[in-house]
Each structure stands twice: as C-alpha cells, then as structure tokens.
Specification:
Blueprint lengths: L2 H19 L10 E2 L6 E2 L1 H13 L6 E4 L13 E9 L1 H6 L5 E8 L2 E9 L4 E6 L3 E4 L2 E3 L10 E6 H5 L11 E6 L2 H9 L5 E4 L3 E2 H13 L3 E3 L14 E2 L2 E4 L1 H11 L5
Parallel strand pairs: 3-4, 10-11, 10-12
Antiparallel strand pairs: 1-2, 4-5, 5-6, 6-7, 7-8, 8-9, 12-16, 13-15, 14-16
Helix pairs in contact: 1-2, 5-6
C-alpha cells in the first residue's frame, strides 16, 4: 500500500463525512450533552462518525474517534486512524463556519498523513509527510516570518473570553479568534496564519490530522515546553500545543508562552 493510497482514502473519508453532515443545518440543530465531559454532540457528529469508520480502518488498523468508545486494541496497532467527525461542534451548533472534519493517520505513534475539510468554507487541506500539503489541490506550506515581525496567531474563542490571551494583545501578535483547533492547524499548514497555540488540554483526535499536515508543510508541532507530542497513548490527551513555522514555534516555546520545562 502506498502513501498515495492513504491520502486518497482520507480524501474519500472527508467527502463522505461532509455528505453525511450535509442534511443537517448548522445553527439550527438539536444537541445533547455527553455524560462524562459535558461536551455537545449532535446527530451530524454521529452520522459522520459512522461513515468514517466504514471507510477508513482496514483489518489490523486501529481506530480512535471522539464519537466512538475507545477500543484499546489500537494500542497494539502500528497504523491507527484518529478522527474527529466534526471538530468544532459548538461552532456547528451556533452556525459559525469554523468547524471541520478531521482525519489523521498514525504509523508507529507518529502522524504521517491527514486531511481537514471545512464544508462551510470549502477549504480542503490534505497531505502527508512524504508528499507535502495542498490547499484545495494547490501546493501549500507554512509561513516562515521573522519572529520579530507581527505574528498572526489563531486563538480559541473560549480562551479569549476567559482572558487567557490578554497578555498576547501587545502589538507583537495579531490574535485572530477561531473555533475548531483542527481547523486552526489546517490553516497554519496551508500558510493562512503564522501560528496557533493553546495552553489547555487537547485530545489526540483534535490534533492528529493537523499535526501531520503542519509537519508535512514544513512546520513544527510541539508541546509548550518544546517536547515532541506522542500519539496513540492510553490517555490520548496533551496538556498544551504549539504549531507554526520552525522559527516562530521555537520562539514561542523559548519565551513567549512563559512555560518552563
């Protein structure tokens, strides 16, 4: 099996999930609250999850999805699909066009290919570490601005509301609110923003596809202390995350974020 086959399967999954979501109307959809995390979930999330599970994993491949019960068999698999059928469910519910379908592929715990599709804006970011990244079929890569220049950073709307980004409104950063973390990572990989970071916990399904894409586009994805995030863990949660071109990413972890190893 070639990497091109993997990327084509990701593309097929993204299109099928978008078709499964299409009958539902963003901004006018009922939702429930998950028992453990109190996060919202809709029938659209569940419909997309079903089609992705039908298309993506083959015998011997693991599966990790926000909308599926965690099957720990994945821990014994070399190849694991990590998906979020709708990343940015809150934005989907509110009718804000900052949500996406996110599909990542791990090999040996490393994100090697991914795809992020926002049907509301018709933005498709797709690629692999071997083949690079495309935005709607055109080659794309991360930006590499001088860290002393003004840096465009995509920030969580909820983090901004809580005041966690107040210290970054200092003229050095052009802080732009955005919903889905997977969508933010896709925009960084596509060169449509310089960076994104968060100092709160994120799950592997939030960031597996985006990590593959940012790295494939020439960027870096690190924890806020500079460490490499590991994937396909028993507890698939990271405490924080930074994604950018190399110079900006290193400047972020070396001083901007105020995190010490």
């Amino acid at each position: 099996m070639s990497r091109n086959d993997d990327v084509q399967r990701i593309l097929e999954g993204l299109k099928a999930a978008a078709a499964a979501v299409a009958p539902f109307t963003p901004g006018d959809i009922a939702f429930e609250r998950k028992t453990l995390r109190d996060d919202p979930v809709t029938a659209a999330d569940e419909a997309a999850d079903r089609v992705l599970r039908e298309i993506l994993p083959r015998p011997g491949e693991g599966w990790l999805s926000e909308e599926s019960v965690d099957d720990r068999v994945r821990l014994e698999c070399d190849r694991v699909w990590v998906v979020d059928p709708i990343d940015g469910t809150r934005e989907f519910i509110e009718g804000i066009p900052e949500w996406c379908v996110s599909i990542g592929l791990l090999e040996g715990g490393l994100p090697v290919a991914g795809g992020i599709f926002n049907p509301a804006t018709d933005e498709l970011v797709l690629g692999s570490v071997e083949g690079g990244v495309t935005l709607n079929g055109e080659p794309a890569q991360v930006t590499e601005p001088d860290p002393d220049a003004t840096i465009s950073v995509l920030a969580s709307r909820s983090e901004i509301r809580r005041g966690e980004w107040d210290r970054f409104h200092n003229g050095r950063f052009d802080v732009r609110p955005c919903g889905s973390v997977a969508y933010k990572l896709g925009l960084v990989a596509a060169g449509l923003a310089d960076a994104t970071w968060t100092l709160v916990g994120k799950s592997e399904w939030d960031v597996a596809a985006g990590t593959a894409l940012v790295r494939a586009a020439g960027g870096v994805v690190m924890l806020a202390d500079g460490a490499e995030p590991g994937f396909n863990k028993p507890q698939p949660i990271f405490p924080n995350l930074v994604a950018a071109g190399r110079a900006v990413g290193e400047a972020a972890v070396d001083g901007w974020l105020g995190v010490t190893p």
